[in-house]
Amino acid sequence: MAASCSFRSVVRAPPLSRSLLARSAVRCRSAATPGAGGAASTSKLVVEVKERLAREHPGLPTGRSGRDDDDMILWFLKDRKFSVDEAVSKLTKAIKWRQDFGVSELSEESVRGLYQTGKAYVHDSLDIYGRPVLVVVAAKHFPSTQDPVENEKLCAYLVEKAISRLPLGTENILGIFDLRGFRVENGDLQFLKFLIDVFYYYYPKRLGQVLFVDAPFVFQPMWQIVKPLLKSYASLVRFCDSETVRKEYFTEETVPPDFRS
């Protein structure tokens, strides 16, 4: 426990309070409106992006999460501060990745082999801030024996599942990395780079906070490598212990089974 406490001093970002979340949402909505035109101006930009995608990338799929998905286009416009050029560029990459990766075809059955290991799952309950919760159990991850492609498919499936559970008015999810029992053989820099790309390029701003729980000293070298790759996203990370997870993010009824005392 002493080792874990010492390492947690590396990053100690406080949890977001309900009032802070509410104020942030108001600021985001205010900043998200491009110019005085408000909703009308935003709708015009969505149409412009849609037309650009249809004209420049007609081979991209349509429909849900496709090149004519208004909600997805609006989300990427917000992410790119309403720059049409940047939104088109990022959307093209994201939609093409979804197409090549076969995201729409992923199901629990298609990832059953690794899903049954319990190495990662979407918790049945939301946290106290109303966010879906994605839990990763690092001690059950063995990159030397588990297929990296299957790991990536499981990751994409669970991110999709978590996002599909977003309540109305909630925009991001909570990620919990359970690092109890983490050893060198559980380390996987390649997968962590994939995870960073997933949330930066394909699901921007969908990750609201990340908890690294009970990180041992052996995890520190990996964190020193990964932290610069995260750039501004590193501010989302909080090192904490199991008790913090129980007391600050869940009620007694909603805490994940792995964290019940």
TrEMBL record:
InterPro entries: CRAL-TRIO_dom, CRAL-TRIO_dom_sf, CRAL/TRIO_N_dom_sf. Transmembrane segments: none annotated. Pfam families: CRAL_TRIO. CDD domains: SEC14. PROSITE patterns: CRAL_TRIO. Gene3D superfamilies: CRAL-TRIO lipid binding domain. Residues 108-261 form the CRAL-TRIO domain. This is CRAL-TRIO domain-containing protein. It comes from Urochloa decumbens.
